[in-house]
Structure formats: C-alpha cells, structure tokens
C-alpha cells in the first residue's frame, strides 16, 4: 500500500467516468475541474472501458480496496455495468449519481457488483429542486431512489449540498430520512473556492448545532473527523442517520484523506482542491499507470493549514514551500 510523506495511506480511488451530465447544478465543480461539461454524446477523451479496468488492476496491486465511480453523471456511460463487473475482487464498488437512470438499470448494476450508491437530492420540493439542478427530473430521481432500494442497495445515501439555496430544506430532508427505512443523508458543505459565489456559503457549524439538538445519538467518526447524527426512532437501527461532510478550512479532514482521484480523461489528481498536480497516465499501459500513481501519491500535499495558509489579512494563499511540487 502506498503512503504519502504525511503518512496517509491511499486506500481508495474516485474515478470520474465522464464530465457529461444531464443536470446543470448551480453549485457543480465537476470534481474540482470546474464546469467543463459539453455535449451529451460520448466524447473521444473519455477513458475506454479497458483503460478504466486496467487502472483498477494497477490500483489493486497497491492494495487499494475501494472505488467510487462518479462523473459528471456516470450512468451516461453505457459500459458502466461492464466496468463494475470487471472491477478487481475484493474491491468495494460504490457510485455517486443523480439517480435518473437507476430505474431499469439498478438490478443489473447490483448483479455486476455494485454495493453502495449515493444519490444527489438537494430538496424535496420539485420547484426548489429544479432551481438548483436546472432540471425537471425530480420525479425520476425519486423513482431512482426507490429502484435502488428495491434492487438491494440499502441504505441509499442522499447527497445534499448545503448552501443559500438549500439550507431551508435541511429540516424537511432530515425528517424524510428519519421516516423512511433504507435512507441516509449526507449534508455536504458548499465549497466556494471551487465554485465561486462565496455569498452562497452558510455557516455549517449552525447545521451541526441544530442537529445536535435534534439527535437522539451522536457518533464521532475518526475518518475525516466527521459526526453522525441519529434522528428519530427508539434505537439507532430504527433512526435516520445524518452525516455532515465539512472540508472547508478543515485541516483534520485533509489529514485523514486516503483517496486519489482520476479525471474522465485519464489524469491522476492528488487532491480535490488542486488542479496544478494533474498527472497523465500516457497510453494507459500498466507501467505508465504505476509510475503516475506512485508520483501522484508521493507528491500529495496537505491542504488547509499547510498547503493553504492564512496570510496577514486572513485570506487563504498557497504555501510557497509546496509550489512546483
């Protein structure tokens, strides 16, 4: 297993299979690359099925034991089932999707080996959902969640980005997962440094405080220094689970990052917040992939607190020690 110079072992990879998407969410940062989405048709720069599988085989050589497929919208890839089926054993396979293509495909994905799914759902109100996603597919997303549960992907974790447009819908969403078996909620802090619009950011500590008041149980997870809140029910097995992902200005979150990312066009990425360290994997031969993977891990940097530091004005800036690494 490879580890960077800060002792962080790389145990997981997050692979963007495409930057195409049938939504146009106002907060989207496209895995930190910016809003680069183009036509809906397959693009020549996307990694092929064999490329993705070859990368996973190399990752398995380094004892990576988990992969999450993302996009864009990964289910726009018609070879997704084949990619999952060819993922090396015993690598855990999960998927982040907007859910619109799960009806009709969820059983095949499970049969291929999909174990977990996150579905983006930023509001339970169709009009608010349309405003955030620039899509009228609200009902299709609801159908997709139901299809995932019926196919055995239990629990389904709902992803909700918390910012000015959605913060008012958090209580309703918390009640929703508390009242419906098989659902969990992941509240994701809005990242203005990747998406712009800093005026949309809210104080995520207020959400933590509100959940503390609502929860019957609070669990602290060492991974990324996260808290889980269990709401409703007479015991944890009956309660709804809510987790907050709050990476912004959080050095503990970065200190516990054990993931390397892969862009849709075959570049390795050591940190979501960085695009200055993208490393191509050449023609995607195994020796080239191995070399790029080793280099990416070796050149990972901490983010908040070391790679990004406060200047005298209180603004974040790059630590010159790491520039050009």
Structural overview:
- This protein is of the alpha/beta class.
- The protein has a single domain, classed as Aldolase class I (TIM Barrel, Alpha-Beta Barrel).
- It is 28% helix and 21% strand.
- The protein contains ten helices and 14 strands.
Salient structural properties:
14 strands, twelve-stranded mixed β-sheet, globular, 28% helix, 325 residues, TIM Barrel, 10 helices, alpha/beta, two-stranded antiparallel sheet
Secondary-structure topology with pairs:
Layout: E1 12-16, H1 49-61, E2 66-70, H2 80-85, E3 92-97, H3 106-112, E4 116-120, H4 126-133, H5 138-150, E5 156-162, H6 170-179, E6 183-189, H7 192-195, H8 204-214, E7 217-221, E8 226-231, E9 240-245, H9 251-255, E10 259-262, E11 267-269, E12 279-280, H10 286-298, E13 308-310, E14 316-318
Parallel strand pairs: 1-2, 1-10, 2-3, 3-4, 4-5, 5-6, 6-9
Antiparallel strand pairs: 7-8, 8-9, 10-11, 11-12, 13-14
Helix pairs in contact: 1-10
State the CATH topology: TIM Barrel
Question: Helical percent range?
Answer: 25-40%
Strand order of the biggest β-sheet:
7-8-9-6-5-4-3-2-1-10-11-12
Terminus-to-terminus distance: 22 Å
Low-confidence stretches: none
| Global outline | globular
**Which sheet architecture does the biggest sheet show?**
12 strands, mixed
Q: What share of the residues does DSSP label as strand, in percent?
A: 15-25%
Number of domains: 1
Briefly characterize the structure.
This protein has 325 residues and is an alpha/beta fold. It has one domain: Aldolase class I (TIM Barrel, Alpha-Beta Barrel). It has helices at 49-61, 80-85, 106-112, 126-133, 138-150, 170-179, 192-195, 204-214, 251-255, 286-298, and strands at 12-16, 66-70, 92-97, 116-120, 156-162, 183-189, 217-221, 226-231, 240-245, 259-262, 267-269, 279-280, 308-310, 316-318.
């Amino acid at each position: 297993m490879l580890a960077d110079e800060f002792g962080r072992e790389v145990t997981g990879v997050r692979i963007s299979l495409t930057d195409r998407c049938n939504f146009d969410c106002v907060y989207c940062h496209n895995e930190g690359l910016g809003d680069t989405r183009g036509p809906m048709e397959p693009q020549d720069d996307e990694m092929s099925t064999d490329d993705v599988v070859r990368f996973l085989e190399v990752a398995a050589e380094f004892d990576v034991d988990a992969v999450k497929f993302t996009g864009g919208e990964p289910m726009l890839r018609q070879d997704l089932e084949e990619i999952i089926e060819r993922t090396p054993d015993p690598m855990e396979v999960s998927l982040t999707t907007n859910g619109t293509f799960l009806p009709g495909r969820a059983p095949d994905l499970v049969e291929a080996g999909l174990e977990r799914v996150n579905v983006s759902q930023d509001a339970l109100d169709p009009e608010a959902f349309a405003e955030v996603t620039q899509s009228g597919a609200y009902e299709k997303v609801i159908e997709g969640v139901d299809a995932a549960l019926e196919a055995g992907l239990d629990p389904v974790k709902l992803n909700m980005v918390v910012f000015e447009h959605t913060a008012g819908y958090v209580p309703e969403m918390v009640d929703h997962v508390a009242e419906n078996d098989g659902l969990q909620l992941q509240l994701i802090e809005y990242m203005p440094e990747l998406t712009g619009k800093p005026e949309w950011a809210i104080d995520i500590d207020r959400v933590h405080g509100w959940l503390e008041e609502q929860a019957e149980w609070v669990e602290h997870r060492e991974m990324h220094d996260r808290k889980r809140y269990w709401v409703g029910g007479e015991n944890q097995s009956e309660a709804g689970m809510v987790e907050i992902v709050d990476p912004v200005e959080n050095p503990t979150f970065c200190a516990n990052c054990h993931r390397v990312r892969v862009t849709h066009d075959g570049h390795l990425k050591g940190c979501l917040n960085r695009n200055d360290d993208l490393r191509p994997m050449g023609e995607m031969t195994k020796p080239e992939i191995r070399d790029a993977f080793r280099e990416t891990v070796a050149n990972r940097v901490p983010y908040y607190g070391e790679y990004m530091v406060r200047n005298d004005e209180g603004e974040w800036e790059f630590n010159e020690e790491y520039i050009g690494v």
